[in-house]
Design a protein that fits this description.
Layout (H helix, E strand, L loop, with lengths): L7 E2 L3 E10 L2 E8 L4 E9 L6 H14 L10 E9 L2 E9 L4 E2 H6 L6 H19 L5 E2 L8 E3 L5 E3 L6 E2 L18 H4 L5 H17 L21 H10 L11 H10 L23 E5 L2 E6 L2 E2 L5 H29 L4 H31 E2 L2 E6 L2 E4 L18 E5 L5 E8 L2 E8 L4 H17 L4
Antiparallel strand pairs: 1-2, 2-3, 3-4, 4-6, 5-6, 7-9, 8-11, 9-10, 12-13, 13-16, 14-15, 16-17, 18-19, 19-20
Helix pairs in contact: 3-5, 3-7, 8-9
Length: about 450
């Protein structure tokens, strides 16, 4: 331990208590002698075993915290170098967050009740909404009980931004950081997105709800089945947060908060595309976003439906051809016995042309009757949405406040979208049958849901 209690650094910060240590890094509670306030002092020793990646993370933490301002995130106050006989230290000074970490409750085997879990979830989601809405999004990457501090008033704060990611390089992070058991699978591959924080939050809440750590879970999976009888909607919500497959996980903190407050039982989700905008399955659609509006135009098409209708068309065409050919054959026989070869050739030609024309006409007629679809346009604007040419289908006529919170694909014989209001004011859904095929509705629903999350409306 290089520093002793009562040591004074930078002629200002007096060391008080060691809060934690990890290799070349130590965290202290200290006092700012200029104003008497308590601060957190994080030090990184430049010794023989120091890795340059540690320096990058320490510098990134300081740079990120200096741009943030949230009442439950520690404020960055200063950074400086401290020269000591054994070597140099990079020191970060942050606002001290008083309270006890949730890891202390977990170490005592305490189990929090459902109400406490819901309250904590809302407070952490509020912090994550703030972080993920930064430009670029700030991903914490190390949410766990020891990094959540409960104040004397019950409020929850998020600390330790030493693994923070603000931006990516080539779509992936530079290094793998985090805590085993709380990290989602994609983080092991060096990739993190805002939904990665949601996974870690879900695992943390399950640990606090069961009083057990991820290392104690069978096969490392959250024991959600044991929680179903206590609160089914919360259990389903936690299951969506802790989906190992990124495409099936709730993809934004805002969406997670809305569903949690809506107290809605979530059905097992269909597989959706994470990058639906770039998917070739939507190339046929015209998608335009201007300001606070999203317009999706589905052109008219002549889609092939079930095999039954083309088969009927072919059979009718053959039947018509047989009837017509029988009539023309009789005429041909009559002309043949008149010993007129020219008339016979004309009649045979007429027979072939008539048969071809009847088959083509019948098939095309039935195909147009059964397969042609009408173009449709969906518009999301502000807090309302509408299906063009259908005034009665405006969201404001169906939902409280006109706000859609979730869009689901309709598959099968009636393809389209199901739009639902999952607000606390009520759960209402409407279904729009649209000129889409099954390969289009799922990625389109995912695209709209991401747009809704990014544009919460009024």
């Amino acid at each position: 331990m290089p520093f002793d209690p009562d040591s004074l650094l930078a002629d200002r910060y007096q060391i008080d208590t060691l809060l934690g240590a990890n290799g070349n890094r130590e965290t202290w509670k200290a006092t700012d002698t200029d104003d008497g306030s308590s601060v957190t002092l994080k030090t990184l020793f430049f010794g023989r075993h120091m890795q340059w990646q540690d320096l990058k993370l320490q510098e990134r933490e300081a740079a990120t915290l200096s741009t943030l301002s949230h009442p439950r995130i520690p404020r960055h106050r200063a950074s400086f170098w401290s020269e000591q006989p054994e070597g140099n230290y990079l020191c970060l000074v942050q606002e001290y967050i008083p309270g006890a970490s949730l890891a202390e409750k977990l170490s005592r085997g305490e189990r929090l009740d459902v109400q406490a879990i819901r309250r904590m979830a809302r407070e952490v989601l509020d912090i994550l909404i703030y972080l993920h809405e930064q430009s670029p999004p700030v991903v914490h990457r190390d949410i766990k009980p020891s990094n959540l501090i409960e104040g004397s008033d019950g409020s929850i704060s998020l600390i330790d931004f030493g693994a923070v990611q603000a931006g990516t390089v080539g779509g992936q992070t530079v290094t793998v950081v985090g805590t085993f058991g709380y990290m989602p699978p994609e983080q092991f591959g060096g990739r993190t997105v805002p939904a990665s924080d949601l996974y870690a939050l879900g695992v943390t809440l399950v640990a606090l709800l069961t009083g057990t750590s991820p290392g104690d879970w069978p096969e490392g999976k959250p024991p959600l089945d044991t929680l179903r009888k206590n609160d089914l909607s919360l259990c389903q919500w936690l299951k969506r947060l802790t989906e190992t497959e990124l495409a099936r996980r709730i993809n934004s903190a805002h969406e997670a908060l809305v569903i949690l407050d809506g107290n809605t039982v979530i059905e097992k989700p269909r597989r959706r595309l994470v990058e639906a905008e770039s998917s070739s399955t939507l190339a046929r659609l015209e998608i335009a976003q201007t300001g606070a509006s999203l317009m999706i135009h589905m052109p008219a098409s002549c889609e092939r439906a079930d095999l039954l209708f083309p088969l009927i068309a072919v059979l009718l065409a053959i039947f018509s051809g047989i009837v017509a050919s029988g009539f023309i054959l009789i005429l041909a026989v009559m002309l043949f016995y008149t010993n007129n070869p020219v008339a016979f050739a004309v009649v045979v030609s007429m027979f072939g042309a008539a048969l071809s024309w009847l088959m083509q006409k019948t098939f095309l007629s039935l195909s147009q009757t059964w397969h042609k679809t009408k173009s449709q346009t969906i518009v999301f604007r502000g807090s309302d949405c509408e299906l063009r040419d259908s005034p009665s289908e405006q969201c404001s006529r169906v939902f409280p406040g006109g706000r859609v919170w979730n869009v689901q694909p309709l598959l099968g014989s009636r393809t389209g979208l199901r739009l639902c209001s999952l607000s606390p004011h009520g759960n209402t859904c409407i279904e729009w049958q649209l000129p889409l095929n099954e390969t289009e509705v799922s990625p389109l629903a995912g695209l709209i849901n991401r747009w809704l999350a990014d544009h919460p409306g009024d």
